[in-house]
Amino acid sequence: MNAVRTLRPAALVALLWLVAAASPLRADTKITWDPARTTSPETVDELKALQEKVKEVVHKVTPSTVGLLVGPGAGSGVIVSTDGLVLTAAHVIGKPGTSIRFVLADGTFVKGKSLGLNKSVDSGMAKITDKPPPDADWPGAKDGKWPAAEVGKGTDMKKGQWVISLGHPGGPKPDRPPPVRVGRFENYSKSDHSLRSDCTLVGGDSGGPLFDLTGKVVGIHSRIGLFLEYNMHIPAEAFKDEWDQFVKGEWTDRAKFAGGVEVGLVLDEDEESPTVKKVVKGGPADRAGFKAGDVIIQFDGETIHAADDLTQLLNGSEPGQRVDVEVLRGEKTVKLKITLGRKTPPEKDRGKDKE
């Protein structure tokens, strides 16, 4: 018969001490939030972990987020280099060389100007030309450096990833730092080369940054969607692709559109409607019969209300695609067919206005 073996009192005490010592360690183990996670918090501890991660990122990137005052208009932006380069939306800055007043997170005003832009994508760059304020306390401020956020990659984001929106809803206010909105990444749309999130945006947020939970800029606020919580952002890659041209102050979308497609026309920037200002001789629009003054009202079966509508459709089109177009020419509606061309370097576009 097997004897029942029992622990000696000293051994039992040692075992109980080990269990008691191990339990607090398990209870006190800190839960951290994975920035790539695509699901919601499932426990209070996970919710706290997400909250701490958001607070950490916001503390890090708030000094980089700025407001832009351009004439009577206002928007937002984000500093991305220590010498003061700022990413924003093209529709915020309007054109290269425009004087801008930047509003820092603490309400301080500094001066600068707009650089290059691409209205087809709605991407733009500006620069702060002033030195950091004497009382600035971010790292490098005393050496004349600006607090720069790192630029990431938006098109690699996964549906459900948590993101942070900063900006200046209603325009920048001297006594208010950039408000924080937390949301989820929805998708990347190839058709109009934009990111979508459920971070709430309103007027004044345009040009502001969308951050992932590592603190990298993955997008720039561009357009408010049909619903308050379904909004569009320019992918960070759109800026990287044309960085050198933007720094030089170049306007990169003249007579062509993003997405590898060329139509050979320029729209009139002074008109709210998509009105043709120039038709490049020998280009796709010229061969299709477009004329200066035509107002584009339908493209590939889609109604066109503004230039942005046409840009979005062209961004999702392919070279060689044949498209039905309707234009308003005077009081007549004219139906045209255009075969979209392949985008060529600007220096090869030597066409003149079609008479």
Account of the 3D structure:
The chain is of the alpha+beta class. It has two domains: 223 residues, Thrombin, subunit H; 88 residues, Pdz3 Domain. Helix content is 19%, strand content 30%. It has seven helices and 20 strands. A six-stranded antiparallel beta barrel has the order 1-2-3-6-5-4. A six-stranded antiparallel β-barrel has the order 7-8-9-12-11-10. A hairpin with a 4-residue loop joins strand 5 and strand 6. The radius of gyration is 27 Å and the shape is globular. The N terminus and C terminus are likely disordered.
Give the structure's gist in a few sentences.
The protein is an alpha+beta fold and 355 residues long.
Features:
single chain; 355 residues; alpha+beta; Thrombin, subunit H; Pdz3 Domain; 2 domains; six-stranded antiparallel beta barrel; 7 helices; 20 strands
User: What coarse outline follows from CA principal-axis ratios?
Assistant: globular
Total domains, how many? 2
Report the C-alpha radius of gyration, rounded. 27 Å
Helical content class: 10-25%
Task: Count up the helices.
Answer: 7
Any low-confidence stretches, pLDDT <50, length ≥5?
A: 1-7, 11-26, 345-355
Distance between the termini: 112 Å
- Strand order across the largest sheet: 1-2-3-6-5-4
How many runs of DSSP E, i.e. beta strands?
A: 20
CATH fold group of the largest domain: Thrombin, subunit H
The mean pLDDT is: 85
What portion of the residues fall into strands of 2 or more residues? 25-35%
| CATH architecture classification of the largest domain | Beta Barrel
Topology as a string of helices (H) and strands (E): HHEEEHEEEEEEEEEHHEEEHEEHEEE
**Biggest beta sheet attributes:** 6 strands, antiparallel, barrel
Query: What structural category characterises the helix and strand content?
Result: alpha+beta
CATH class of the largest domain: Mainly Beta
